[in-house]
Write a structure and sequence with these properties.
Distance between the termini: 44 Å
Shape: globular
Largest sheet: 8 strands, mixed
CATH class of one domain: Alpha Beta
CATH topology of one domain: Dipeptide-binding Protein, domain 3
CATH architecture of one domain: Roll
CATH superfamily of one domain: Dipeptide-binding Protein, Domain 3
Helix content: 25-40%
Length: 503
Amino acid sequence: MSFNPRQWLTSALLSVCLLSGLASGVPAAWAQSVQRPVTLSLSLEPDSLDPTTAASASIGEVVHYNVLEGLVKIEESGATVPLLAQSWAVSPDGKRYTFALRPGVLFHDGAPLDASAVKFTFERARAAGSGNKSKKVLFDNMASISTPDALTVVLELQHPDANLLFRLGENTAVILHPNSVALAATQPVGTGPYRFVSWKKGWGITLTKFAGFRNAAAVQIPQVTFRFINEPDTQSAAVLAGEVDMLFNVAMQNLVQFQSDKNFQLIAGSSNGKGLLAINNKRKPLDDVRVRRAISHAIDREGFIKRMLDGRGKAIGSHFSPTEPGYIHLTGMYPYDPQKARDLLKQAGVKLPLVLTLSLPPTPYARTDRALLVDALAAVGIEVKTEYLSWQEWLAGPFKGKFDLTMIYHVESLDYYIYTDPNYYFGYDSPSFRDLVARHSASQNGRERQLLLVEIQRHLATDAVNAWIYAAQVTAVSRKGLKGWWMNYPIFAHDIAALRWEQ
């Protein structure tokens, strides 16, 4: 089933502008654009700047649409529009896509973009041993990649994929420079409106406007710096001190200090993110579905959202967000029921207290949420010990399968396919689930695909692979006069070229 812009826009209508000044701003006749840099605060520092080989969502927040571009672009509405490809045609059977590249596009070193760069990038992504997150769902489906001429790319698919264009718009499908791909992780060379300048580890990354960009005259922000600040109070202090112009995903407890300040504007919108207590399905006794179901019954999702998110979120029961196509509400499978949780642990023969370690990344949502989860699990006989990890430690530990429990927020859209990989950090190994996903991928019948999405969600929920908790509202604060930010995030990207200062 394809990504549905109408569904996304319906969700967007529920978004709340927390400060009326955001919508009204300065009268258009008086507004003047100002060439001024922007500093954006992110909670996590990327471990790489190559989104085609590394998993962190923060990579795309820095480079996607700014430094690196794909054939198509995903807009705030969720619609896909031309980017490096100016047009495309699809064969009647849905298995051949012919892309016409935009002429005159330059890489930051002055080399022209042509079809060979697209072919190189995609073949690298589908090669054996590729670390691309979308290898299985996107690149392994490419039977062949041909280039009839310098500005034409033809993709022949193994099977039709109604979501192909959306997947090509994600950061895992950005086009890299073949001659500098070895430097992509630290000094990426792309075709975007900004070029890489510097990366001061532990502090920030700076990009500057690319004079050779095909539409450089429309780019009004001359430079952008991404500051890495993971402590909520330090984030807010940096905004108040004028060191940061925009803070993405504000900790709820810090919203009040901005709500009545006329110097700032607050924005709340939707995303495809899923907040979950991830469970290591390979570790005993977590390999017993009754134990995993007990954990799900132990968590009061609605109470969690009210207490930790100030009510700004929706409870979920599987690995789908309410904004994603095919979503069904499954929280009723595991209502908050501590006694049921205790009964399930007893049925599983678990000796109490069951001692587990909760490994926490350095994000505000993980550190803030810790106490509630610890108390909830303690009430059913699970003693939780917490460990605080840096992002690098989290990637080297939990993300490699070395954990009991971890709190994480998955931001990628339509990423249920990660559960088909037994080596993914959850350690979930289900041949029947893999068969479901394969059937969905191969189906060309819209009704059948819809029903299979329902089965996919129910299968994950029935196996209680993880304890899914919430889909959060995306909340941001920016300095007054900074216009062009997305309110809703079908993908996590920050399109700096769309920004402008007005005064």
